[in-house]
Write a structure and sequence with these properties.
Rossmann fold; 12 helices; 7 strands; globular
Length: about 260
Amino acid sequence: MKGTHDIWCLFKGLIPSKRLIVVVGTAHKVGSTWLYGMIKDIGGFELGIKYIPQDFVEAGTIILEPEVLQLLGRMQHRVIFKSHAFPPVCENLEGEVKFVSIYRDPRDVIVSSIFYLAYLDEEKGGWGNDFRRLPERERIKRFIRRGEFSLSRLEAWFRSPVAYSVRYEDLKGEPVGVLEGVLNYLGLSVKRSKMKRIVTEHSFLARTGRTPGQEIKESPLRKGVVGDWGNYFDGGCVAAFKAEHQGRWNKLLVEMGYESCLDWR
């Protein structure tokens, strides 16, 4: 039986009513930091990263190795993690580890990635000055060729049975409604007024001081719009997108529902 102090803390929202482990698992440049931040604040989660040995942390996100999954299953906290690793193959982990993912038009992922990698320090994985000096369309074609690491993660998380999946474009268009679906999946009940407040606090304007569409190319939060690929892809980019990696980029685009057939223009 809980003591008076614990009951008071529970009432005030200072301790969670039960343990809940959430992993936001995605490819890069799909809006994962945005989604992760909103879920964390709406649900009152602790940052789970402090409970994971550094051997299983890479670039600020956890690696979903079997040892980590076992550790998550034993945790007694309400915590949230982010991961850019591949999803686990198991469909459930003791019923209390919940995976949430987000996907985005692969063409927009590519455009976002070529700016991010052009300005990211090489020590942190950036592609360096030679890449940055390339014309933007050449960067796109190079990323399409070299970006199998991104493509494979987009495929894996989109097809994974372990995760509740969110479409980036839907989150942009109706963030409160989409987040409501995520919270239902997590078994959390939160007032809509709180969701609206946190959505506003995490908006592109609040985070950058810019309205969506005002671009700073070297910023990790570059532009904040949907469909920006149309401003950058030319015929050569489209041809590379359709052909490279045995057409996997293009097949995934159709599978995700962004085009109705492989022969789009």
